[in-house]
Amino acid sequence: MISQRLKALRNYMASKKLDAFIIPSTDPHQSEYVANHWKLREYFSGFTGSAGTLVVTKDIAGLWTDSRYFLQFEDECNNSEVILCKQSIPHAPEHVEWLCNLLNENTIIGVDYRQFSKSQIDYILSFTSTKNIQLQNEPKFTDGIWTDRLALPNFPVDVHPLEFSGETTASKIDKVQTEIKNQDAQYYLFSSLDEIAWLFNIRSSDVGFTPLVTAYALVGANTSILFCNKSRFSQSAIATFDELNISVQEYDTVVSLLNEVPKEKTIITDPSTLNYSCFNAVSGRFIYQNSIVKELKAIKNEIEIEGAKNCMLKDGVALTKFFIWLEQELENREISEYEIGRKLDNFRQQQEYYTGESFAAIVGYKGNGAIIHYTAPEENSAMVKNEGILLVDSGAQYKDGTTDITRTVWLGDTPSTELKTAYTSVLKGYIELEQLQFPIGTTGAQIDAFARMHLWKNGLDYPHGTGHGIGSYGMVHEPAQGFATGATTARGTTSHLSHQLTTIEPGCYVTNQFGIRTENIVVSKVVKETAFGKFLGFEALTLCYIDTNLLNLEQLSTSEINWLNNYHQLVSDKLSPLLNEKEKQWLQQKCKAL
What is the DSSP string of 239-263? Predict the structure, then answer.
């Protein structure tokens, strides 16, 4: 099937005299997760991972992705002509230089400008220009190939109420309009779906696992335009927008309206999210800067933080009931990884304000746990027995917040020394980072190593960042702060500030043997102020026991044991009032002091 699709693409390329085609993972809004309509890279490669770029020439089809997905690629593309091109740095556009070195002068690369940001096209042009390689916009290249391609989503749009958002749309837009005036501009153009959802307090179901709305937004000094099909809004929502001088225009009119912006007008935008098609439509002047909304929404208000805490309570109850169920069921039968994921979701569905999973649950038994972004198939997934190791990474969307948690549990037999060393080193890394105090403004790359230091001492490491931002009923991977080794990534270069929600999730993976990860969501807060400035620390919000069966207690210091005992006491105190007597006793046993 993939070979037939690639053959059809190459026939199209030949008809257009294209020497290569680049197909990224994104949509016109540079989203991490995209609607089915935009899963072009998946359609032509068969690879379902959330990160990767397909490069097709007359003779080669190469999929560029990073080490998080190597095992997944081998599993999904084993019998395909698509070859794996291993990125040395996650998200780095290493395919661009490779392709330009491969192509001759005066050749042509096909792209869909809607799928590439202004910054990305500028980067490509910096390489192609030296050989006079041309880029050609081909927005209709799937016509006649992907004949059953799904339409763009058109679900109803909900207004996110003040009781959950903690700030009105008027207040948020006023901050953007202040920036417009300060920059002596006339407009601010937004393309990122999570930024638009936050700014206008709107939510929908356009993207799997993420309550986003497919839209563009043009905020003016006095009025604003939301480009999103009007039929998706209730009359009361339209009336509310009218009062705020927000007009709703059809989604596909954005380019034509941008064409009408007078040349003398100035538009502020973020070049990392503005797609090249929209950029080409504007004849006026741009001011490029990091999105003000990205910066504003990263700082959670008190209502959002309180909502996050409420979500962790609900999630903690669901997880406790789930692990009790798992333990009891495994005494009598084997259970598929897929069923385990569905059962966990079922327990979450019983919680107030639940709307869905925040990502596809990762339930990896034994060696499958080493596949970092593993998704258990419905058919023929591994059967979990009352033995070995199980990694469960999952999360939920509630109207009052978003959750993400990983726990690794031991199901029976005697764990090896290697396994206990790795598991204990991961926990020590988590504790090290969660207990860290650091000056406000410290970046993720400066902090990341604290979570790895104990793993490094044992010759261990992990091939992913140590944490990411969390939205408030928004994206589970919210830009921009986090922890990463690379000083070139947003998570590595962004400063940490007070009132941010971030995950801490060190891990360790051995191919075909095991995967280990421990993950909590923490909130940053000022813990000290001295002559050297304000210092931040973290407070753990996630409430779920940490399995002690895999710990090597000799590796833990007294302070680390005290941390674990205190954390378990917190989990027990918070969750016990919400459980029945048997559940409470089970949890208290799991949380007993070491």
Answer: HHHHHTTEEEE-GGGHHHHHHTS-T
